[in-house]
Fold:
Amino acid sequence: MSVHCFHMLLVTSWSPVYISSSLPSVWLLAYLITTTRLFLFPLLLLDLHTWLVLLPSCSVSGHLQRVAMTQRRRLSNTQNSPQSRQQPGTLMAQEEDDDSTFTQPSTSQVQRGLEKLTPAQVEQKTAEVVQYFLVKDQKKIPIRRADLVKHVVKDYRNIYPEIIKRAERTFDQVFGLKLVEIDTKSHSYILINKMEPVVGASIINPTNPKMGLLFVILSIIFMKGGLVRENLIWSTLKKLRVDPGEKHEEFGDVRKVVTDEFVRQRYLEYVRIPHTEPVEHEFRWGQRADKEVSKAKILEFMGQLHEQDPQSWSQQYREAHSTPSSSQASTSSQR
Amino acid sequence: MSRQMGDSHRRFLQTMMVSGIVDEQEARTLYKHCCETHNTQCAPDKLDDFIDTINSKLQPMFMQIRKGMSEDSGQQYYALVNMSETEVTRMSSDYADNELELFRKTIELIMGAENGKASSTDILNSVDSMTTKKMKKSETEHLLNRLVHDKWLCEKRGEYTLSTRCIIEMEPYIREMYQDQVKVCHICHNIAFQCQICENPTCGIKIHNPCVARYFQGRAEPRCPACDDFWPHEIPEVRRPQSQSRR
Structure:
């Protein structure tokens, strides 16, 4: 390897994003011990087995990479990349800006494109795409195809489908993750976990309290039919001593976490209700929650909690078991 | 010879991705746990082979699970590090340019210090020589806290040292960038920041504190392994492995 500088320090600071059951039980238990009476969903999460599909937010952040790269440029103006990579042609530069100019190449185009490249080049590009996804996914914001093409794929765009296919395979075989296109219109991707979470995993992993909070909110929304006015969420949280009006010890600005962070991460949707004065919003599951969170398991848990058969919530049961993967776009059912 | 990756490997990798760094005991427990979950054979002495299999698949992505020692406790740790040098990772930095510059300056301070520590005062002073946007005192303190929180630095009584994770990840870089300055432990041959140094001016070998403890254990009169001079420094106790400590 050539001169590394700070790009060696590529902080693999993967932040855990596990919706872990043990987590809710930790903080909720504390609250619920004091507030056991009320609320609609006794969120007394006991020793619930981890049952949601988890997403490890895994990524690599090139912390000092930038410094390194600028340093390197100052030292020598040549690029040190091991493979012979073309500089993105300036002719292409303008076209790269808009995804609308990117059309999916045909199979024969891909074939022709592959013939012109060495296997090593294709492998390298795939590796970069994988890294990019891991890095971007750290922020939990869906990755747009346009950005991927512009920043990473660049002049390998004519073999884009092949690269994506290989990246998918790498995620599957190496990381146990699934690359999912959540928005076929704007072509955005997220990474979800293929593997079932397991009891005891949290022994080693520090769990993120925010996921406990999220889980509570998702449960409420689901049990209430998929669409819930914000007031219900706030009042339920208040009963759990999580007051959106106050700064919370663990979560900080609760309102911001719920209406901004979770929404950006596509776990929740926060939509304005028209003709309301003062403005009111409603919550529903976001695309990422649809893909990652198993409704069947929420119901199973509710069943344990209330000591009822999950099937007693017939509507929710039907919804939870409507598809094999129980992850469909959650359109609001009746309120 | 590397086998195919199975679910047990993937689970191990995912956990490593979340934790960043685990100590040896945690790694063994995790290994066992992953194998049991997926009904795979698990021989306790095969942990390194297991990790090799994962590393062989991570290699194209310039990632690796590497082993390193804590300068503080002497415990072995496994860390997932990234060795990539592409622009891709460059684009995702959590830290701003000036923050990175300050971090780099901190590393330089630590490199140059005989005790492998940089005081917060020195770090604050180094802001003056920054070429990127200079940081205010509060910003610097905030950055240092962040770096500690993200497990890049360790702080004790106002002094900062490089975390185990940082050392494991940075070792190749440091060896290359600071070839002349870098201290290497005479016993384990890894880079050393916090270490004891032989006082013989013609010798001057360095030994990590935990390596000193192990090497001189039970010896009545400690002598330098290189020049045989009396070893004047206090010989620390050999630390029993603890599963609690995280770096």
Q: What stands out?
A: The first strand of chain B starts at residue 21 and ends at 23. The domain at 8-83 of chain B is CATH 3.90.1150.220 (Aspartate Aminotransferase, domain 1). The longest helix of chain B spans residues 97-112. Chain B touches chain A through 55 residues (CB under 8 Å).
